[in-house]
Structures are given as structure tokens and as C-alpha cells.
Amino acid sequence: MKSKYDIYISCSRSDNLHVQKFVQSLQLQGFTIWINTDFIISESWQQMAFKIIEGVKVFIFISSADSNKSLRIEQEVCTAIELGKSIITIMLDDSELNSAFAKALDSSDVYNSSDNNFVKDFGKVVEKKIKEDSRWVFISHSTKDFELVRLIRNALEKIGRRPILFYLKCLSNKEEVSGLLKREIDARPRFILCDSKNARASEYVQEEVDYIQSKQRMYETIDLSQVDFDSPNIEQEILDLIKPFHRRTSVFLGYNRDEQYIASQLKKQLNRVGFDVWDADLYLDKMPGNSTQKDWNTLIETSIRATLDKGYFIVLLGERLSDYSIDEVKCAYEVDSSRVLPVAISKNITPDFLQRYNILDVSDERTDSEMARVIVEALISFDLENHYK
């Protein structure tokens, strides 16, 4: 499910004061956070907690003598484990972890809170964790195509993704297999369907695709029939085939200098869900000192065209649009208007040339972080609509 929270923090009431310093570090990075401030257990709480944990990107467990004895926290941590969430554990003391979940926690994501530098940089630690997690790719395929799909996996690793594929021989119980696959899908941000006659005939593959779609997750299809696996240039052919998957996650962001803060929040949140973000500032250092305005315009136009090949253009409509921003927007609409998402971040009048387009209005949101969250959710829906046409 979609959530307005990035992070769920599970902690004991007695540790609440210690937790606030981590909350401050996370908020400086633009994260939205949920903590059970009432510290109660009820049936309604359990239902609410499950839905919130299901939607967050990272679950943080604050480990202490009290939290490891808490039934509520045990239920929260076990829920996060069952949902395949990325879990970060912060040790406030040297007490032993609750035996109900100790073995399931990844020791590489356990940190000691006594390091002041760690506390200060904790927001960056979580940012890095989310970015690393966004590189995982679940590959849906028929086991009959396994040798061919391995080549796809190897190519994805070459472009920096972390593909995961299954060849399950030890499990024969259908419910057990389905449960395992669904938990893996819940834990991954991106998906590839290796389409073939075998895949279309596979009950498990069709179940995976149906489940991915039901979760409104982004996925790409690679048609295995398009690949000549006997070709001497097979590696390059596969790299060419998966380029659209790599490109489709690109976004060019147009905005004025006045909107730099919300733009930075939006970039972070887009990165967290697997989009690569480009804007004019990225190209400033690439321009030679003797470059002309014409050279600059050509570079930006080329970049926008490359992004819109399989990506998107977002323009933030604030107090005003500069002439440069107007030129960027007009270029994007000329290339492919179906991949342009104009966003009103203030109540000012929309420029005349944009009046005939649908505009996402986020101006009623209270904070820049909330605006960014709504924009990201809209772009994911926008991406799904384009992908499934």
C-alpha cells in the first residue's frame, strides 16, 4: 500500500527521549516518521500498525532492556520481518535481543547509539540504505527459461542493479511457494517479467504478475523471443534490450531557483523509489568556460529528449516561471506531452500555455516534504498508466 510515512520507529516509552535525537536527524533529511506515541496494544492498533509498516520504506527498531521485553514491540518487529521490510536496529544498551526475532535481524544493519557522529549522520545512513534497497530487482520467469534468464540477470548486474531470481526445487507445497514469492515481492521495489511461451504457461509466473499489479508496483517486460541467444554478440544484445528498463526510471526536473528546497526534497524521495533525477544544475559543470547560450540550450534540449525517450519531465509551478523554465517545459511538451507532469506548488495563476493541460495541485499540502510525497505517488501512478497502455 502507499503510505505517507517513510519510516516506522518501534521503541519503548522509556526510551522516547533518546529516540528524539534520531528523529531530528531523519527529519533533516526530509523523512516522514511514524511512532506509536500512545504505546498501547489493541485490535485497532494492530490493524493500523500493520498497514503503516506495510507502506514504509524502512523499519527502525530501538533496542534496549525495556524494548526487548515488550510484547507490543515484539509484534511490530515480527510484522516488519514477515513483510520483508528493510530493518535497522539501534542498540541503546548491550541487552540481548528478543529471542522471538533475534536471528532474523541482519547483523550488518545493527548500530551502536553511543557514537555521536553516527547519531548526527543517522539520516544519511538511512538515505543510503533506501538507495541501496531501490537497486533490487525481482525477476519473474519460468524455470524452463532459467539459463536464458541468467544472462538477463548478469546484464542487470553490469548496470548496477541487484537482480534476484528463483529456481525452487526443494519446495513442493503450492501455498508455501506462493507465500515465499509474495514475501519477496513485498520486499522488492522493482520487477522484470521475462516473457515467453513458457512464462505465459506458468501458473506461478501469472500469479506473480497479478500480485505485482495488485500492489501497484512498477515492472518492465522483456520479451525473450526478441533475443538471439546463439548470437556471438549476445551480451551486447541483452544490454541493448534492458536499456529501456534502465531509462524508464529517469526524470528531468524543471524548477526555478526559488523552489530549490522542495526540488531537493523531491529528488530525494524520487531516488528512494528508484528514479534517477536530472536537472539543469547537473549540467553546469559540464559546460566549457567559452560556451554560448546556444550551446547551453542545445545541451538541455538534448537531455530532455533523452529523458523523455522512456522517462518523465516534472515542472514545479511556483510563484513564477523563468524564461529558461518556460523553454524547458515547451521543449518537453513538443517531444512527448504524455510524459510531462506539471505540478502547482502555489496558488498563483498557471501560465497561459499550460492552461489546456491537466495539472497536479499540491499547494494545499502543509510542508515541502508532504508536497514531494504526493508528487512521487502521482508519478508512480502516472508511470503505471503509461506502462499498461
Relevant terms:
five-stranded parallel sheet, alpha/beta, 389 residues, 3 domains, Rossmann fold, 14 helices
Word description of this protein:
The chain has 389 residues and is an alpha/beta fold. It has three domains: 7-132, Toll/interleukin-1 receptor homology (TIR) domain (Rossmann fold, 3-Layer(aba) Sandwich); 134-246, Rossmann fold (3-Layer(aba) Sandwich), CATH 3.40.50; 249-387, Toll/interleukin-1 receptor homology (TIR) domain (Rossmann fold). It is built from 14 helices and 14 strands. It has helices at residues 16-28, 43-55, 71-82, 116-120, 122-133, 146-158, 174-187, 197-201, 203-214, 234-247, 260-272, 293-308, 323-336, 368-387, and strands at residues 7-10, 33-35, 58-63, 86-91, 110-112, 136-140, 162-164, 190-195, 219-223, 250-254, 276-278, 312-317, 340-344, 360-361. The strands form three sheets. A five-stranded parallel β-sheet has the order 2-1-3-4-5, with helices on both faces. Strands 11-10-12-13-14 form a five-stranded parallel β-sheet, sandwiched between helices. The protein has a four-stranded parallel β-sheet with strand order 7-6-8-9, sandwiched between helices. Helix 11 links the parallel strand 10 and strand 11. Helix 11 (260-272) crosses helix 14 (368-387) and helix 12 runs parallel beside helix 13 (323-336). The longest helix has 20 residues, at 368-387. The protein is globular, with a radius of gyration of 23 Å. The two termini are 22 Å apart. 32% of the residues are buried. The mean pLDDT is 81.
